[in-house]
Amino acid sequence: MESNTIAKVMETEEEAKAIAKSYQDKKKQAKADNQQAIEDYRKQAQDKLAAYKEDLANDQAATLKQFQEEKASQQQSEMAEIETAFKDKQDSIVDYIVGEVTKVYGNR
């Protein structure tokens, strides 16, 4: 009977060790799974952030290009207006300059 009890205690102890090992293995696996999930979420967040930054940079570049084109167009139209105004008044400007030179230097 005593040997039966010792055998039962040893069997129970082996079962307890097996359960403890199983628990430790599952705990270790759960921790590894958790770390992997965190890494996956971190990578997804970094990818989304990188995509957002790229989209933002593209939007800014497009806005800048549009602004530059509008400014260039505006400057061209202003230059065309100035050129037209000069051409319209060119004859009178030349006549005025010739008149002033004639007054100062006379007909020499």
Keywords:
0% strand; 1 helix; 108 residues
Could you please describe the fold and organization of this structure?
This protein is mainly alpha-helical and 108 residues long. Helices cover 96% and strands 0% of the residues. The chain has one helix and no strands. The protein has one helix at 2-105. The longest helix is centred in the middle third of the chain and has 104 residues, at 2-105. The chain is rod-shaped, with a radius of gyration of 45 Å. The mean pLDDT is 93.
Fold topology:
Blueprint: H1 2-105
- Strand content bin: under 5%
Question: How many helix segments?
Answer: 1
**Proportion of residues in helical segments:** over 70%
Structural class: mainly alpha
Q: Major β-sheet, in short?
A: none
Q: How far apart lie the N and C ends?
A: 150 Å
Order of helices and strands: H
Summed over residues and divided by their number, the pLDDT gives a mean of: 93
Broad shape: rod-shaped
Rg (CA only) = 45 Å
How many β-strand stretches?
0
Low-confidence parts: none
Coiled coil: 9-85
Keywords: Coiled coil
Short summary:
Keywords: Coiled coil. By secondary structure, the protein is mostly helical. The protein has one helix at residues 2-105.
